[in-house]
Give the backbone structure.
Amino acid sequence: MNPLSEIHIDALTEVFNIGAGRAASSLSEIVGDEVILSVPSLQLVNSSEINAQMLSLNSPRLGAVKQQFSGPFNAEAMLLFTEERALEIVHDMMGSHVSIEELAEYEQEAMCELGNIILNACLSAMADILGLVLESSLPQYRVDLSDAILKQIIEEANQPLMLVLHIDLAIEKRHSQGYLAFLLSSTSLEELLVHIDRFLGNI
Amino acid sequence: MSNSNSIKTLLIVDDSRVSRMMIRTFVLAKHPNWIIIEAVSGNEAVEIVDRDTPNYCTMDINMPGLLGTDAAEQILAKYPGIRVAIFSGNIQESHQTRAAALGAQFVAKPVTEKTVAQALAYFESAK
Amino acid sequence: MNQHTATSSIPVDINPLSELIWDAINQGLILIDNNGLVVMWNKWIAKHSGIPPEFAIGHSLESLFPDGLSAAFKTALKNALSHKLPIVLSNALHRSPLPLFSVPVTKGDQPRLQQSTALTPIIDETGKHFCLIQITDATTSVKRERVLRSHSEQLSIEATTDGLTSCFNRRFFDDRFKAEFARAQRQSTPLSLIMLDIDFFKDYNDNYGHPAGDKALISVVNALKTQLNRATDVVTRYGGEEFAIILPGCAAEGSLSVAEKLRMAVIDLNIPHLFSKANKVLTISIGITTYMADTPCSASCLLDTADIALYRAKKDGRNCVRQLITPHCRKTGPNDSQQPRLTVCMT
């Protein structure tokens, strides 16, 4: 059932590992502190199986940053955070002089930028390693009740498969979980696998 | 260039099979007679070094268990003669500084012919 | 502007209407070629930078703003040109990446314009790469957003919050309970419901006065809140001195230990209540029930069962927890012949 072999997962994990490293480097420049990263873990799931528990995003509200990208294959890349975490990260990025009330006001924009940094880092790593040219839309951020966010993902995606990547990132020893989800149609997935195989074949 | 002909042992430490495979391939293309050992974690690397004492080592940072930089620190404290290249995608300034402080060379991933050549140049510059 | 594009090292074809639109747009637009040189420079940007297009075109931004560009902007531009991926610089994190000012531009005498910036790679039909820089004046939007946001948040908070205890209200409970129940059914996960009541609260109010009663209510809510660790577990004021707590994903055993912790937390407040027949201090009675995955139980049945459990707790002398498991209660509700089974009793 699972079209991803172990070696595919390994290769993709390494791609995202490097992407996460690039993102951490940009983020640490902004916060002026080290960003601690976990080894990303990756799974391929049916989009109908996506729910807050499976993602262990237990929060009434979620924030989602989304970018559509196109190239040899088309996909939607999305980063999910619990709202509390999103606000904490924005707080860390903006510095402690900003009050919590003020934070909410900047959340929209700052989360767009944060998502943009992480998504671009992952996309550019994928493009560099697999030798692809990828184009992308500007990021959009939405914060809503968890159910509404997840429902929209599933409905809008209209894609049976979803590549879900889990990265833990901690700023100033603060633990923040973020999920990166790539929504791929089956033809896009096949295309991605062709590129991974080509890359593996070149080794 | 007699160096490139002599048999050397290289320990590749990386939790990614693909990365190990790529490093191995690029190294063997240049030095077909080198002996390559692999470890999938920092902990395993520390054990292997005690047993096999390689000449060189490439070390990933983000791995399950012991961090690569911590493993490198332990290895270099015990065997200062081993040349370690920290080969990682975690390119934050702090890691690069730490690598330098440990007396290791930082090489930024992805693993390519060019980045492997950087690690090799460092290994062979050390005599 | 035709003569400017003609003098530029890279000829760009723009039809006259597009050019008029480009200049009419009320935000800053700069087009940069792959070598980092300005190809187009619209009226807005000319106005706010004080640099006319004839000076800007063919030059790099660094040479036009020798020490005015933020480091983050320079990195972003470099990345946008090399990775060909769009980049945003939010006003939140980068107040004013470019030295732009309100009109009339009198540099140095006034603060820079607040900006929101986006860099988008563009490829023309011949395969040439460009980067479009869009700059929005964020001064007004920052203010507007602040006002709108505080209004709408105030409204939504008021609509779902209990004024006295500032916990969620009945309306919030009704919505949340419906949603959580539907989710539990859909995902085949358990769902526990706690209903609790302050014992002899009427006697408390009558003897200690309403201000003291209000104070006690607030203390009880705060004590309950400290025992709930998950963000999804929230206290709601169901009515008067009755509260409801939904515990999504929580099975019977877990909910029982939560309930016991809640009961103890209220006792530990040590609020004297000499007119209570249950204890010398303020106490609560608790009824719990759990929806077990894949049993034919409706939301209203679950709610009624929790109510029955609470009634049992009161009947059994108050200051205790009673739990009822719904075995096969049907959609017709609790008046059905099959009564929920009492499984656990503890005091």
Observations:
- Residues 1-10, 328-347 of chain C have pLDDT under 50 and may be disordered.
- The first strand of chain C starts at residue 28 and ends at 33.
- The radius of gyration of chain C is 33 Å.
- The longest helix of chain C spans residues 138-160.
